[in-house]
From TrEMBL:
MF terms in GO: nucleotide binding
Domain GFO/IDH/MocA-like oxidoreductase per the UniProt entry, residue ranges: 145-276
Domain of life: Bacteria
Organism: Christiangramia oceanisediminis
UniProt name for this protein: Gfo/Idh/MocA family oxidoreductase
A Pfam cross-reference name: GFO_IDH_MocA
PANTHER family the UniProt entry points to: CONSERVED EXPRESSED OXIDOREDUCTASE (EUROFUNG), OXIDOREDUCTASE
Domain Gfo/Idh/MocA-like oxidoreductase N-terminal: from-to ranges: 19-137
Listed InterPro entries: Gfo/Idh/MocA-like_OxRdtase_N (IPR000683), Gfo/Idh/MocA_oxidoreduct (IPR051317), GFO_IDH_MocA-like_dom (IPR055170), NAD(P)-bd_dom_sf (IPR036291)
Length: 377
């Protein structure tokens, strides 16, 4: 019987918004066993949370230093093999660096780090150590996103000529207009978030998705960001023009002050033979547009979909799958890589994609500060 991969978690405790997403995803394909971690900066809360998960109390550690020291003393077949980093942005780099240097595989939330220099440092260490490193650009795990990627790769919409990605939320709107609230929110603190809020948080998802589904690399960008208040150091809204090549252009729109929006992530790709549209809030529908033909709606689980799409479909047609399934597919792809099994290309976002994401964040801010000029990536 195949042994489960031993998984540790940093962050993701009682008050975490994403902890449950990662835990459910890790359990989805029966590939992982959560064995311990550091779930909270306050050790007593971490222990209480670990007890709720019915974990061995001896593996609920005070901090990362204690975790690494104790785990490295265990026999190799008993210690944690991979560790998920679910902490605020400023901790991603030091934690991931320490884990890589000690031979652990890593799954890290995005943005990968707070600076491009840090991201490149991680990439260098990872290449030296040969560890598996996944960055959770969650939405790449949806079956119909993978179907979109395959159809574009197979030339079903022809040569790409227009890319339009939009990610609109409204959650910062109630905070940004209150001086005290906006000054005490960690997302709007450069020391904890890095140089960007909106682009760093959700704009990087849109950037990654644009390159993921098209298979193209963005070469140049021109950005216009909105900070709304003089005392707010972090962007909360932005529009970025994209140049993939001389003939392929696009636009990326991201906002956290789109009043009333929840998680409106929309991807539209247009080729010279057709177009494809996908919406995260209705993720089980992929729309295919052809000139002079009726709109086609593709859904997961049907045999007309690609093998890549079907691998990530867990239920029969007509049974909705969502964000947990998407993250579960990414964890499954990482598990296969750890086991050195053959998997689909694009089964999980790699460290190199996290590095490109950090480059995009920094160049976007640079473009805006230079007076909205074109900047090469």
């Amino acid at each position: 019987m195949m042994k489960k991969i031993k998984l540790g978690i940093l962050g993701g405790g009682e008050e975490s918004l994403i902890g449950i997403l990662h835990r459910v995803a890790a359990n989805m394909f029966d590939q992982y066993e959560i064995v311990g971690g550091v779930f909270d900066s306050e050790h007593s809360r971490s222990v209480d949370f670990g007890n709720k998960l019915q974990l061995d109390k001896s593996r609920i550690y005070r901090d990362l230093d204690h975790l690494v020291e104790a785990e490295m003393k265990l026999p190799e077949n008993e210690r944690m093999q991979v560790i998920s980093v679910l902490t605020p942005n400023f901790l991603h780099f030091p934690m991931s660096k320490q884990l890589l240097e000690n031979g652990f595989h890593v799954i890290c939330e995005k943005p990968l780090t707070t600076t491009l220099e840090e991201a490149k440092t991680l990439e260098k260490i990872q290449q030296e150590k040969g560890s598996i490193f996944g960055v959770t650009y969650t939405y790449t795990g949806y079956p119909m996103v993978r179907q979109m990627k395959t159809m574009i790769q197979n030339g079903e919409i022809g040569s790409i000529q227009k890319v339009d990605v939009q990610y609109y939320q409204g959650w910062i709107n109630p905070l940004i207009h209150d001086k005290e609230k906006r000054s005490t929110t960690w997302r709007l603190d450069p020391e904890k978030s890095g140089i960007s809020c909106c682009i760093g948080d959700i704009g990087t998802h849109a950037f990654n998705m644009a390159e993921y589904v098209t298979g193209l690399k963005i070469q140049e960008i021109l950005a216009d960001l909105n900070y709304l208040y003089e005392d707010n150091p972090m962007d909360i809204d932005g529009t970025v023009l994209l140049r993939f090549s001389e003939k392929t252009k696009g636009v990326l729109r991201a906002s956290q002050i789109a009043t009333g929006e929840e998680n409106n992530f929309t991807v539209k790709i247009y080729g010279d033979k057709g177009g494809l549209k996908w919406e995260q809030e209705n993720p089980n529908y992929l729309y295919l547009l052809k000139e002079g033909q009726a709109l086609q709606v593709l859904k997961p689980g049907h045999p007309y979909n690609s093998e890549f799409s079907l691998e990530g479909t867990k239920l029969p047609p007509g049974h909705p799958e969502g964000i947990f399934d998407s993250m579960g597919n990414i964890y499954f792809g990482i598990a296969r890589a750890i086991r050195k099994e053959k998997g689909f290309e694009g089964a999980f976002p790699k460290l190199s994609e996290g590095v490109r994401g950090m480059n995009f964040i920094e160049k976007t801010v640079e473009s805006h500060k230079q007076g909205n000029t074109w900047v090469k990536l």
